[in-house]
Amino acid sequence: MTMTKTTYREAVRAGLREALQRDPLVFLMGEDVGRYGGTYACSHGLLEEFGPERIRDAPLSESAFVGAGIGAALGGMKPIVEVMTVNFSLLALDQIVNNAATIRHMSGGQFSIPLVLRMATGGGRQVAAQHSHSFEGWYAHIPGITVLTPATVTDAKGMLLAALREPDPVLIFEHAYLYPMEGELEEAGLVDISKAALRRQGRDVSLLTFGGSLWKSLEAAERLAAEGIEAEVIDLRVLRPLDTATILASVRKTHRAVIVDEAWRTGSFAAEISAQIMEGAFYDLDGPVARVCSAEAPLPYPKHLEDAALPNVEGIARAVRGLLGA
Amino acid sequence: MPTLGADMSDGTLVAWKKKPGDPVTRGEIIAEVETDKAAIDVEVFTTGVIEKMLVQPGEKVPVGTVLAIIREAGQPASAPAPQAGPGRLKISPSARQLALELGVELASLQGTGPGGAISREDVVRVAKAGGMRHETRGGTGEQPLAPVAEAAADRLLRMRQAIAAAMTRSKREIPHYYLSTTIGMGRAMAWLGEENLKRPVTERLLYGVLLIKAVALALREVPELNAVWKDGQAAQSRAIHVGVAISLRQGGLVAPALHDTDRQSLSELMQNFRDLVKRARAGSLRSSELSDPTITVTSLGEQGVETVFGVIYPPQVALVGFGKVVERPWVAEGRVLPSPVVTATLSADHRVTDGHRGGLFLAAVDRLLQEPSRL
User: Fold this and answer.
1) B96:A253 CB<8 A
2) Fewer C-beta neighbours within 10 Å, C or N terminus of chain B?
3) A83 and A176 Cβ atoms separated by less than 8 Å
4) Do the chains contact at A285 and B119, CB–CB below 8 Å?
5) Of B96, B113, B120, the CB nearest to A325
6) CA dihedral angle for residue A153, residue A154, residue A155, residue A156, rounded to 10 degrees
7) Is residue B153 domain-shared with residue B212, that is, in the same domain?
8) Which domains does chain A have, with CATH numbers?
9) Closest partner residue to B139 among A230, A284, A287, by Cβ?
10) CATH code for the domain of B277
11) B interface mutation test: which of A253, A255, A284 has the most B CBs within 10 A?
């Protein structure tokens, strides 16, 4: 296993390139993925390398190009469709929920949709409410699709390659804050997209999180360690199908859980995790499950307000201290 | 902290059964204390109103430490009694489960978690209170694995150490002598069989209570054996409180008192004995039951043992051991007949009595057992 220092953005690009090189049925389609090189520069240089047939700029109609991706998948291709942000994906909600997620079931298994849908999610970059929300939890509500939230450079590449092997739609949520993040890329091949990842061992509390919040949680765990509190950090990384076993095993060990989810608290995926803990580990809990989520407001543009609205390191640490009475 | 046994140097307050402001009457159970041998209920020795608790559950303190202040009834309280909310116990599900597994009474727990909630740590603290290991504060201070087994092992280890201390002291300080006699049980067993036919199943007598009663009555005739060794001399006890050795399922034993044994009817003795066994095994003996015995009776008949040479439990000066009731050839009036017999052995402190008095005692036990209807 070799390790290469790279950015999350470059890891995504490396994954795209490898997929395009390996399988002629793979193509990339989306707004600005070609000549502009991708809104987040994930596909920079790919048009030159693979040509306009395989790197396709799409018109500004999410419903149309996601629908086209579904059609291509039905026709035997392996499309990777990039939606600029999760906010815009709502324009394609009908295609994703009513078509992509259901066709296998409604056709009695005759058709499958091997579609990979990538999009940026999350806030923290001062791009305001129309670009900054976190709806991956909504998608995780839908049966028939797989929902991935890679948080490391290794997962950014490895999960994309693993997703292309799935016979059914896979949605990949790349936290936009992570694109410039550097990390060690493990060339370990595919990532197991059925399992959560233990990112830090601890005995006092389980921090259950995913995506961009992973790094805030790890930093909070560092801060808490200095105070003598050992937090375990679980990167859920697959929201559907959720690796409940790993969550419950951790909670059974630490007896306390704090869920960090950048979505709004009400009706959040954090609420789902909390419910699963109640169902599966109630008698192991030594305190109520706590959640750290975003303030219940459209994400503000001004930096100080955006910072105040999003989960932050101190807020996570505070939630843990509150649970421990520390 | 009352002394509940000769070798008790300290005890752990497990739980308060009362709270400040509660009126208490002499003899009432006020607290639960764990000694090296058992968890026992502490009876209050005076009547009044609880002013203040000075020792908190989980604390291990030397014998003689003031546990609480009781003021005379009628005097004003110096502090308002805390409001007793009728609300549910604030305890985490995991702590509740753990308390159940460890046999920790919920009422004995005091929450130190957020908002006063009872956490696992609080349960573990009470369960381990007085344990050998040092508790490190900060973090959860407990190992996640097998806390149940640990606590039980801990308890057993401490009981073993207490028994070791008492028995070593006994054999070091007490010059034991042993006398043994075989007692014909034909009449006693026949009487018992008839008597039990008249009784409902739940009130039937075991032959063991006949033996205990016979010992108690024989002590009236040889009171020197009903004594404790104190400050270099024997102090006879007016009351006869026979301590009965009860083995515990997890290992170890206790020998709590059947108070005023000689004054109890066989029915009362049977009922009280059953109750004592049950409470000994449940860990809910009273302090006086552990501190009051003036002699110990032990029987290993159930294990098939025929003769028991017991070790005296200091500061007592005698112990009577009974073996199994077995059928043996028995000569009566020149004829050999099969007859049930039991071997009674007296272990006695030679500083206090001599073989002559001991022999009289065993003879009295024998004689009493030949007239079972008068027991």
Assistant:
1) no
2) C
3) no
4) no
5) B113
6) 40
7) no
8) 3-186 (3.40.50.970), 197-324 (3.40.50.920)
9) A230
10) 3.30.559.10
11) A255
Nearest CB to B94; choose among A285, A322, A323: A285
Q: Is B95 in Cβ contact with A204 (below 8 Å)?
A: no
What is the C-alpha separation between A18 and A13, in angstroms, rounded?
A: 8
User: Under an 8 A CB cutoff, do B92 and A203 touch?
Assistant: no
CA distance B266 to B136: 52
User: In this predicted model, what pLDDT tens digit does every residue of B152-204 receive, in sequence order?
Assistant: 677 777 788 888 888 999 999 999 999 999 999 999 999 999 999 999 888 89
Q: How confident is the model over B227-256, as pLDDT tens digits? A: 999 888 999 999 999 999 998 877 788 899
Domain enclosing residue B97, as ranges: 93-158
Choose between B227 and B147: higher pLDDT: B227
Residue in A with minimal Cα distance to B93:
A283
Mean pLDDT of each 10-residue bin along chain A, 326 residues long: 88 97 97 95 96 97 98 97 96 97 96 97 91 95 97 97 96 96 86 95 97 97 96 98 97 96 97 97 93 96 93 97 88
Residue from A41, A38, A110, A111 nearest A70 by CA: A111
Query: How buried is A76 (Cβ within 10 angstroms: 0-12 exposed, 13-18 middle, 19+ buried)?
Result: exposed
**pLDDT at B203 (0 to 100):** 87
* Residue A131 known to be catalytic: yes
Q: What are the tokens at B5?
A: 């046994």
What value of ipTM does the predicted structure carry? Answer: 0.72
**What is the spatial distance between Cα A291 and Cα A270, in angstroms, rounded to a whole number?**
7
Judge: B113–A287 Cβ closer than 8 Å, yes or no: yes
From A296's Cα to the closest Cα of chain B, the distance in A is 26
User: Mutation test of the interface with chain A: which of B94, B109, B119, B142, choosing the one with the most A Cβ atoms within 10 A?
Assistant: B94
Shared domain for B268 and B342, answered yes or no, is yes
Residue B136 Cα, gap to closest chain A Cα (Å)? 12
Shortest distance between the Cα of B120 and any Cα of chain A, in A, equals 6
**Which of chain A's residues have a Cβ under 8 Å away from the Cβ of B139?**
203-204, 228-230
Amino acid, single-letter form, for residue B300: L
Left if phi > 0, otherwise alpha if psi is -120 to 50, otherwise beta: which for A224? alpha
Contact B144 A253 (CB under 8 A): yes
C-alpha span between A166 and A174 (Å, rounded): 18
Look up A272 and say whether it is catalytic.
no
At residue A308, the pLDDT reads: 94
Cβ contacts of residue B9 below 8 Å, gap of 6+? B62, B63
Same-domain check for residues B327 and B192: yes
